[in-house]
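Hi Prof. W.,

I finally got the NAD(P)(+) transhydrogenase (Si-specific) prediction working! I wasn't sure whether to trim anything, so I left the full sequence exactly as given:
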Amino acid sequence: MATEPAPEAAVEPAEPADASAPGTSAAERPTAGPADDARYDYDLVVIGSGPGGQKAAIGAAKLGHRVAVVERRHMMGGVSVNTGTIPSKTLREAVLYLTGMAQRDMYGASYRVKSDITIEDLFARTQHVIGREIEVVRAQLLRNHVDILPGTGAFVDPHTVAVVDEDGVHRSQVSARFVVIATGSRPHRPDTVQFDDRSIVDSDGVLALERIPTTMVVVGAGIIGIEYASMFAALGTRVTIIDKRPNILEMCDPEVVESLKFHLRDLSVSFRLGEEVAGVDTNGRGTVTRLVSGKRIAADTVMYSAGRQGNTETLGLENAGLEADRRGRIVVDAEYRTSQPHVFAVGDVIGFPALAATSMDQGRLAALHAFGEPARELSAVQPIGIYTIPEISYCGRTEEELTADAVPYEVGISRYRELARGQIVGDSYGMLKLLVHTETFELLGVHIFGTGATDLVHIGQAIMACGGTVEYLVDTVLNYPTLSEAYKVAALDATNKIRQVARFVG
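And this is what came out:
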C-alpha cells in the first residue's frame, strides 16, 4: 500500500486529518523570515524520504530554503519505494505479463507467456525497478541541493533533531525552523499472531517468499489484502480470503465490487466473509487457520493484512511535545500542522487516505504552508486507485452517498466489450460508470473496473475539478479506438436516460 501501498481501510479505517486539532491561529503561526534563518542549521528538516517527505523537501528547496532529509541508507525513497507501492505494483505487472492474463480472452484460458513461473522470475523485475527508483529519488534531492543525512531521526527538543546511525550511535544533531514528519508506516502485526516470516507473513513478508505457494489464506479484505490475493490467484494459487465484515472493499461502488468478486471466483478464490480468525497453527507442512465458527482452513501460507502502523515510536515525540495514537498516527490540522505549529506531519503517519499520491501532495502543501506561500488543495476530487487484477479506480461520490443526501442523479454505464479497443486488448469484463446530476448535468462520480482504470479515472477527475458537465463528454471527440471512449458511451447513456424521464414528465 499508495499505496505504496495504501492502508488497510478494511480492518481499521484511520481518521482523516482533523482541522480542529490543537494549534495556533493563522496570525500566530511561525513563518520563515530572514531574521530567523541564522538561528537554525536548516530552514526545514524532513524526517523520511518517502513520497511525502521527498515532495516537502524539494518544494521547500525550490523556494530557496536550506533543507535536509534524514533517512536510513538502505531506505532511500521510504517504504513506498522499498517495501510498499513500487514493489507491489511491479510484482503485479510481472504477474500480468508472465501469466498472460490480459491475452486469455483471445488465446484461451491456458495461455501463459512462461509455463513454469518462479519467485525469482517475479522479483527480478521488482528489484530492478526498486534500484532505479532509489537512484531517481536520490538524484532529485541532490539536484535540488537538499542535504541527505544518513540515519534515523529523533527529536531532542521541538526544534532539534538527532541523527542516529544503523548501530544506534548518535552521529549528529541539527536544528530547524520547521520539521516535517514523513516516516511512513509498516504492516500492523496483531499480538495474537505468531509471525515467522515463512508460512505466516505480512505484506512485507510476501516480498521475501522463497516460492509461490500452492494455497494461501489472506486475512483482511481491505485494499492490500485484496491486491495480493488477486495477484497470487492469477499465478494459480488457490486463495481463501477471510474477513469479519460482510463484504470486501466497502469504500467502493457495490456494482464494481461484485464484478471483482465474480472475476476472483473465476480464478478459484474463496471468500469467508463474516468470519473471524481464532488462531493459526503451523507445522513443517504448512498452516491451519482456525475460525471462531469452528471451520479450519489448511494452506501453505497465511498472509495477514491487518492495517498499517505509523513509524513514530523512535521519533522521541515527547521531546517535541507531541504524541501519537496506538496505531502510531499523529493528529494534524487542515494545513498538516501538528499541535506544535512549526512541526508538520504528512503521509501514512496522519492516517487516511495514506496513499502515495495523496502523500506527495500533502508534502508539497506542508512546505507551502510552512513558508507562508499560497496553497490550493483539491481534496474533494482525489482519485483512489486499487491495483487488483483487474484494477479499480474511482473519484467523487458513490450512489449511496448521493442517495443519503437526496441528490437527484442518473447512472451512465459503458462496458468495455462494447468498445473496439476493449476487443483489441481482450478485456470483455471492464466497465465505466458515471454518476450525473439530473438537473445541472454535473459529473458527480466516476467508477471504473478493468484495464487502465487507474489512468482513465483522471479524465473524469479533471472534468469534475474544473466544474465541467457530462455535456462536454457528449460533445467532445475522443480518439478511436481507445478505452477513453467509454466516457462518451457512458455520457450518452446517462443523458439519454435523463431525456427520457424529461419527455415522460413533460
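The longest strand covers residues 170-181. Does that look reasonable to you?

Thanks,
D.
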